[in-house]
User: Fold these one by one.
Assistant:
Number 1:
Amino acid sequence: MKKVLAIILGGGQGSRLYPLTKRRAKPAVPLAGKYRLIDIPVSNCINSDIEKIYVLTQFNSTSLNRHINQTYRTSSFSDGFVDILAAQQTPDNPEWFQGTADAVRQYLWLLEAADVTEYLILSGDQLYRMDYRQFVERHRKTGADITLSVLPVDEKKASAFGILKIDDSGKVTDFQEKPKGDLLQNMRVDTTTLGLDPESAKDNPYIASMGIYVFTKAALIALLSENKDNTDFGKEIIPGAIGRYNVQAFLFSDYWEDIGTIESFYNANLDLTRHPNPPFSLYKSDAPIYTRPRYLPPSKVLDCQITDSIISDGCILERCTVRHSLLGLRINIGAGCIIEDTLVMGSDFYQTPSEYEADIRDGNVPIGIGENTIIRRAIIDKNARIGKNVKIINRDGVDNANHEEQGYTICSGIVVILKGAIIADGTVI
């Protein structure tokens, strides 16, 4: 793996994850209480012995840069690195990144100089665990110029992905980015060729690209150099390579979730609370998920009822009820609270006792969740201040609404409390 360079695409605006991306890059969105989305592909690389990693960024990248710099510090005796490549304007490239392929193209001068034979292109908003060594081995064994990681999907999901067809050898013969209607129907295949049983193949008759690719060095340089109007891998680069290059498929058969929307992000996080077999496990010692060490104290739970939940470090819970929820770092939850089906991202800092007392004395809301508050089916972003006797329950059953001036939005029926929002005592949402 010394000859493989990983490129993680983290430069998108993340509009589907808004408002979680209002003040941060998509790969910097908190995950599972203590991680960030970027920790998934970087950890997969480290566990696969891939030590050369670039992260391409563009929007709201301050917290992402800080997290990577504080987390991934390679040994001075290694040639490995995890470096940020931010969008920049140059005489040759006066525009910002115009798409996934354009982002890589604008740094081709740097990537071309690397002493590697393959480039591994990864996404920064997916939840999965993959040994990339098997992926690269398949690529090399088949003599491929490009290899796509794929998985079977049903018709409902298919139109959100790049869909492909393969021959008996696994070579890609057709590729359509997010097809719909008749074009989608024409991409149906017998997925028993991938090893699915007949019933599963009937339910999942499409082969979807995961947006994860291996390119040989020569193929990537040639494809990005020949037509600078092609700015996206899925829409232009991959379809244009079919028939001209040896494009192969690698079947991935484990858990994978694209968590690029509020609903999928919410569901993927709460799925982690399942016991005993969550679809994605955080507890595999042979392939851990790495993140920034914070040296926080253990959580303190005082006379609480907690079921099917994950509690992160540094929390203080007092006489409250928590069901099927995930609590992030440094959460304070007051007595009498009920938290159900909710993702609470936590806080970046503790208030000092004097700050807390000053808030109470001045009639302000301190950081955390006040007494006798009820929260159901919600996402509470970091550093939120939620008062006493608040009800965040989507009382009117609204599917979508934007009330940012009041500190919240509703997406797919999920109430999202904005980062740093203040929800006054007695508020009902």
Note: The chain has a mean pLDDT of 92.
Number 2:
Amino acid sequence: MAKQVKLTAERRTAIGRAAVRKLKASGSVPAVMYGSKDKPEALQVSKRDINALLSHAAGENILVELEIAGKSRLALVQEVQHAPLGGAVLHIDFHAVSQDEVIQAEVPLEPVGTANGVKNMGGLLEQNLRSLAIECLPRDLPDVIRVDVSALDIGDSIHVREIQLPSGVSTRIQLDLTAFSVLAPTVEEEPVTAVAEVAAGPEVIREKKEEPEAGTAPGGAAPKEKEKK
């Protein structure tokens, strides 16, 4: 299940680019918390604390207990904006929830084990769904949903309806969707090596010229006799 951690936040009154630059220079990160019943509230959290929180998170869904002015609010880290260069945290969105409120989240799917069709038959495990859209109470929110694929042979599949969900968790997507399957190995045809034979060109038969007989001028004409004076 998603681990619930404590995080201190302060209300933020200064709004605008200049205020945000000043806030970041002081070692804090701007944030906002919103919920279905409350108006959005501008907050700020320590950069060091939020970096520690994100680095130790087991999954994408992080449940936090926000301490704001001595009061605790349960919230889900909804979105974290990072700088394109360096990856520094620029802004955080918190979604306020209550312990008895059903929440919706995307939870990663993770295959466990090596499929028999892959291990012994040379097949390929294909993961069609990388995450699963679920509904549950905050206390039941899982970090990840693991699926045992070791029994799959070539041609076998695991559909959403066959995934064993944790207690208190239900899915919001079609149950007949394929989550994992094992494909047959791809047989590559060996290229046919063509023996390049040098084809002989057509034989050109040239007519042999007859050599002129002795005393015969070229072209076959007999030489003219000298006239006697």
Note: The mean pLDDT is 83.
